[in-house]
Design brief:
This protein is mostly helical. It has one helix spanning about 1-20. The longest helix is centred in the middle third of the chain and has 20 residues, at about 1-20.
Length: about 20
């Protein structure tokens, strides 16, 4: 459960950073 949450958080952060870079 914790692993899934951590992965989701990392993915969300990567998405936000990607949008900012774009």
């Amino acid at each position: 459960m914790i692993a899934i949450v951590s992965v989701f958080l990392i993915a969300s952060f990567a998405l936000h950073f990607g949008w900012r870079l774009l």
